[in-house]
3-oxoacyl-acyl-carrier-protein reductase FabG
Amino acid sequence: MPSALSEFPTVLVTGAGKRLGREIALTLAGAGWNVAVHYRHSAADAQQTAADCARACGRADGAATFCADLDDEASVRALLPAVLRHFGRVDAVINSASRFEYDDAAHFTYAQLDAHMRSNTAAAIVLAQQLHAHLCAQRVAHLGVVVNLLDQKLWNPNPDFLSYTLSKAALEAATTLLAQALAPRVRVVGVAPGLTLTSPYLSADQFAALHRQSPLGRSSTPEEVADAVAFAVRNRALTGTTLLVDGGQHLMRFERDFSMM
């Protein structure tokens, strides 16, 4: 066990090579955490995130990359043990990686739902289960936290991205159920961003216009979502609840998903 590292808390961030996962990883590294950077295909991006996290936490060995396919149960079950072998401890899991593929009621298939549920829901539950088992095995009482990235559209539903939305709804329910089941060792908290980053479905002008559609005149930024995750990680009174970080977009009614508007 690498005892030189074990004095520092360690967080596993899934999908940390790019986008929100990267921002979350950098924010927690800046707060002093060791960061396990998970990726599936984006090896080069993950290596860059790890290098940036090492600089942010001030330790050359404070970050490392770990590859796993979240669709595959065996691969998911091997992920946290690999992080433990490297860092000697895991204190938090941030389930940021997410499958986001279009379907609707007319084009729904078992395969599409199964793929989303595996990546977005089942993997998060397995990692929470493993974190709890690891912490319960410690001789000294030690608390951990799981943060699940959700979506404001759960509170403002529309029929687009049906399988994705169902998988996130299941993860929101799992946040409550796991908070009950894993207490007091592990807290489980949701963070639900609004429109935060553009996608292949939106032009830059469309993104800018849609980002302004909220009661506050702006939705969330990556930095604000990462800050909410950091708050959920450090606030020991939070469990079984979700922080909506969206400029109030969940208070408005949208007939279509942002990418379809």
Observations:
- The CA atoms of residues 28 and 230 lie 7 Å apart.
